[in-house]
Amino acid sequence: MSRDGVNAPVPVAHDAIPAVDPRLIVRQEGISGYLGEFKRRLSSGELGSLPVVLALIVIWAVFGSLDSSFLSAQNLSNLSQQIVGTGMIAIGVVFVLLLGEIDLSVGSVSGLCAAIFAVLDVTHGVNQWVALVAALVGGALVGLIQGLFFAKVGVPAFVVTLAGNLGWNGLMLQILGSSGTINLSGNDIVSRLYSTIYSKTIAAYGTAAIGVALFLVASLLDARRRRAAGVPSRPPADIALRTVALAVVAFAAAYTLNQYKGLPLALLIFLIFIVVLDFVLRRTTYGRQVFALGGNIEGARRAGINVSWTRISVFMICSTMAAVGGLFLAAQIQSASQTSGGGNLLMNCIAAAVIGGTSLFGGRGSTWSALLGALVIGSIQSGMNIMGLSNAIQFMITGAVLLAAVVIDSLSRKTQKAAGRA
């Protein structure tokens, strides 16, 4: 400020060095830069999927050493089918968790929608496709009702979905009627979607090749788009390395599946759901709105996001995925009964999402969490069954793994806050 009280202009340094995005520096340094960035992320609590991947490796190594049949092509192929029902429901749970909320009704909703399909298809002889659509629409309507109570009325999601857990289970019992159990024919569309296996080797290898090719094309297009916008993009070497890593995993999985019967259609459908919904979360405005709500709801509201509609739509997605998962679970046991959606299904679905890396505190997660988490839980159950251990031991170990995942999530958030990144 000058002597006469007038603010003097601040001198500008013409030789000042403009700020450079640290991601550009990392990528220019090559491998050493990425190693440094990896260490920085770990030290700041950004663990990503690393804990669950390491846990899965340890689980497979332990059970494989105790019984060689665990890592057999037959067991791994069966595992890939068995996790589909739980994994589908877990995808929907991921969406709700991204908001920092919870849905305790997914188990009952899955049983309800399975009952709707079974009653329409078997009891009333309705066209299978009509019965399938009715079951999915039923799931979406459940989500709409619960979402309205949560977003418009202001009832906590915990209370709404807890009430739904009881109410939808009662409706399922009413729909099933006095018999209590309706057996599927085995030739219905849901059973065929679950049991079909493509035995030709080209099916598994072709799917792996298509997946890798799509990833490579998407990565190259994204890099070109970023360069055109003048923002940091992945260099060709980085894209090549990631593509090779994906190819190794994809073709190893294809080889394993071909050693038994081939590619299960249920697994392929599961992966399609994961990829499509991951694209929705990562590459669309709607997905960014979901993450924004989970990160800071007041900031999202001030940014012009329709908070009520986004919340309602997320609960609709969750319940619809519960319906999809319920149909696959019914096809797995070839029936819809009074026990459908019960037992430890709810806990396994929530555990799969959390163990896979989705934060209970909202704003961080991925649909791939459902796959990783379902693999962890399914692997534990499969290994325990092979070893002949009781359900009590399985429950205790699964609970311990879930607790460990939540502890890691909590510690990660604390570390990120300390590092100024949360």
Q: Major β-sheet, in short?
A: 2 strands, antiparallel
Percent strand equals under 5%
Find the count of extended strands (DSSP E, 2+ residues): 4
Number of helices: 17
Distance between the termini: 38 Å
Strand order of the largest sheet: 1-4
Oligomeric assembly: single chain
Order of helices and strands: HHHHHHHEHEHHEHHHHEHHH
If you average the pLDDT, what whole number results?
87
Outline the low-pLDDT stretches.
12-26
Shape: globular
Q: Overview of this structure, please?
A:
With 422 residues, the protein is mostly helical. It is built from 17 helices and 4 strands. The strands form 2 sheets. Strands 1-4 form a two-stranded antiparallel sheet. Strands 2-3 form a two-stranded antiparallel ribbon. Helix 6 (128-153) runs antiparallel to helix 7 and helix 8 (189-195) packs across helix 14 (307-333). The protein is globular. The model is unreliable at 12-26 (pLDDT under 50).
Features:
17 helices, 73% helix, 422 residues, mainly alpha, two-stranded antiparallel sheet, globular
Quick structural summary:
By secondary structure, the protein is mostly helical.
Outline the fold blueprint:
Blueprint: H1 22-28, H2 31-43, H3 50-66, H4 73-98, H5 106-123, H6 128-153, H7 157-176, E1 181-183, H8 189-195, E2 197-198, H9 201-229, H10 236-258, E3 263-264, H11 265-283, H12 285-295, H13 297-302, H14 307-333, E4 335-337, H15 345-355, H16 368-387, H17 391-418
Antiparallel strand pairs: 1-4, 2-3
Helix pairs in contact: 1-2, 3-16, 4-11, 4-14, 4-15, 4-16, 5-6, 5-7, 5-14, 6-7, 6-14, 8-14, 9-10, 11-12, 12-14, 15-16, 15-17, 16-17
